[in-house]
Amino acid sequence: MKPESLRMLRRLARTTTLYIVVTGLAVIILTPVFLLVSLSFMSDLEAYNEWPMPLMPAAGIAFRVEATEAGYVLSVRKVDGSFQSLIEGTDAEAMAAFARRKTNCGLTAGELRQAMSEAPREWSPQREWLANYRTFFQVSPGAYAALWRSVYVALVTIGLSLTIGGLAGYAFARYRFVGRKGLKLGVLFVRMFPGVSIAIPMVIILGSIGLYDRPLGLALVYAVGQIGLTVWITASIFLGIPRELEEAAHVFGASAVGAFWHVTLPLALPGLAASAMYAFIASWNETIQALVLTQFNPTFPVVVYQALLDSRSMVHLAAAGSVVMALPAVIFTFLIRRYMVSMWGGVNV
Amino acid sequence: MMAEERQPRRLKEALPYLLIAPVLLYYLAFWMRPVLAALYQSVADADGSFTLRYYQMLFEDPYFVRGAVNTGIIVLISVSLEFVLAYGLALLINTRFRGSTFFLFLALIPMALPPVAVGAMWASGLATYGWLNSLLVHLGLLGVDERIAFLAGGEARSLAVIILVDGWQVVPFMMILLLAGLQNLPRETVEAGRVFGGSQWTVIWRIVTPQLRATIQTALLLRIIAAIQIWLIIVMLFGFRRVPVLLEEVMYYQEELGGPLYQRIAMAYAVIVAVIVSTVAVLYLKVSGGGRQEVNE
Predict the structure, then answer these.
(1) Which of A246, B59, B195, B257 matches a 20 to 30 Å C-alpha distance to B215?
(2) What residue spans of B95-212 are helical by DSSP H?
């Protein structure tokens, strides 16, 4: 074979391997995510009564009602097309409620009564796609409140870490001073300190200032970890903005604060926003400190955690809670995907 | 420069410290104070006298040894396997290709997901009637009547499951860190290696890897710190005390048992975990924190 065609063949082989590896990885990454989302839309029947469990919820539901000696029997169509009897009786109210719970449809008692009068009859009621999400919030006490508490905690954490951490980050970027390097490493050390080892003694300390089991208390603890990272991120952001710009502002008569406010800050804004979103994700996802530091006022991850541990048979509801949990994290990750690597890398911002 | 000289000299010298003061005060109140409180309370009896009985009770608990051993196994095996796999993938993928930006976002997802969502995902997947067995049946890899009991079996098998699930989250993350490092390498060195007749393997081993040393150290030590603190996924899959690990034991004493005595033991546990993690953290700062960043500045 000629060397050129050999080279081309080799290149083709390399491209093919690359795409196989990339596709394979994408499939491995996405399959569990897809199935969690899929499960969160499945009805009780689909999640537990079918084997193998369907990989996607059915697009529609079909019911059949037949008259029997004892009253009526309501059946529902399975994936393979056969009908499975769901409930038998005469009380349309109770039967419709049961069918709604089992199949995630919007079947009303009136609709069922109508069908009964025309039995035997087959029909397809509307599927309620968000039923699991609604049910999750209904059966998990305080889930809504916990959701807002999580948002509040994340916002306070962002506020604390950006102001306190941002000031120090600016100092590290703009000034050389004694102890600078040691301080910067010390900050990183605190950042890597295990959260649980702070949370457990914090139970008593927060209790003594009335902040145990309070979102504010939790945010104070979250900020300990976040400030350290924010210092490093903001330091590298401010480092990327030439100090000559600030000096130019001085020449034109701006004060130090004015130069920072009107020149540096606007330029730093995208980086600061990324840092804030990163802090949001970290605070939003955090579980162990929230478990230790809350009792009656949990954050959302704690609610999802408990829903999953308490009721093994309600996995499709816990899946709905998990998707609600995951959505903001994934969206913010998408927005800051470019910055994410350096933030994860820790020092190498 | 002129403008700076106009500032009073003393203020100029004090300014960086003023800017850093809030962080230091914050750490004093919300980091130093709990750390000292934990140290004190883990050795203070109810009447305030010195005691080592919490540590003694902890060490006498057979779950401590099991937890420590399991944590060690997870740290050693999962971090090294994950690294080898991630590095291999990073080397394979190290080119710009169509859709590479989107692929990188996909690879960010597992690590960005909330731990409880990952727990729910695998708890529903690995259950005997869960989606993983169903998927295998749909794919024809299992017969309709066959099911793999992923969560049953002994500790070795459970650890293998934990390592696999952890790998799902961590390998893409490590791969991205290493890819970022690879893309910052000067191309010339690799090309020179090729020109002088180095095989693919030699180039990777002798030229690429040494230059990536800092990135690799960073990634490994950060992962070790995280792996020492693995617990949530284990509890969500197996419940408490099926596969004990250090942090799961901390949470078992703190939350499941509760009460003054057990929470003191949890405190002692927290101190031990802090000592272990801090040791690794100091090591990390020594090898990667000191040099590089400062050079860039």
Answers:
(1) B195
(2) 100-112, 115-126, 131-138, 155-183, 187-195, 200-202, 209-211
Chain A positions touching B129 (Cβ under 8 A) are 48, 51, 53
- Indicate the DSSP class of residue B114: -
- Inter-chain residue contact A329 with B113, CB threshold 8 Å: yes
| Mean pLDDT computed over A333-346 | 75
Question: Which residues in chain B have Cβ-Cβ distances shorter than 8 Å to A342?
Answer: 180
Distance CA A225, CA A199 (A): 11
What pLDDT score was predicted for residue B262? 93
Out of A22, A164, A287, the one facing B22 most closely (by C-beta) is A164
pTM equals 0.90
For chain A, positions 95-114, list CB contacts with chain B under 8 A: none
Of the candidates B85, B73, B107, B110, the one whose C-alpha atom is nearest the C-alpha of residue B230 is B73
Distance CA B104, CA B117 (A): 21
Spell out which residues of chain A touch residue B146, defining contact as CB-CB under 8 Å: none
Which residues, other chains included, contact B260 with Cβ-Cβ below 8 Å and sequence gap of 6+? B46
A34 touches chain B (CB under 8 A): no
User: Smallest Cβ distance to A344: which of B121, B177, B270?
Assistant: B177
Outline where chain A has alpha helix (H). 3-40, 44-48, 92-103, 109-117, 131-139, 143-160, 166-174, 180-192, 195-208, 215-239, 243-251, 256-259, 265-285, 288-293, 300-310, 315-335, 337-344
The answer to whether residues A222 and A286 touch, using CB atoms and an 8 Å cutoff, is: yes
SS3 state at A72? strand
Q: Are B121 and A322 in contact (CB under 8 A)?
A: yes
Q: Report the alpha-carbon distance of residue A33 to residue B117 in Å, rounded.
A: 9
Distances, alpha carbon A235 to alpha carbons A54, A172, A272, A283, B279, in Å: 50, 6, 10, 21, 26
Please report which confidence band the pLDDT of residue A71 belongs to, taking 50, 70 and 90 as the band edges: confident
What tens digit of pLDDT does each residue of B2-46 get? 444 555 677 778 889 999 999 999 999 999 999 999 999 999 988
Chain-centroid distance of CA A186 in Å reads 31
> A49, A187, A200, A245: which to substitute to probe chain B, counting the most B Cβ within 10 Å?
A200
- A13-49: pLDDT as tens digits: 888 888 999 999 999 999 999 999 999 999 998 888 8
Helix (H) or strand (E) holding B15: helix B9-27
In this prediction, residue A346 has a pLDDT band, given cuts at 50, 70 and 90, of very low
Both structure tokens of B9: 């000299």
Contact B15 A171 (CB under 8 A): yes
Output the average pLDDT for chain B.
88
Residue predicted with more confidence, B189 or A275:
A275
Contact B175, B93 (CB under 8 A): yes
CB atoms within 10 A of CB A59: 7
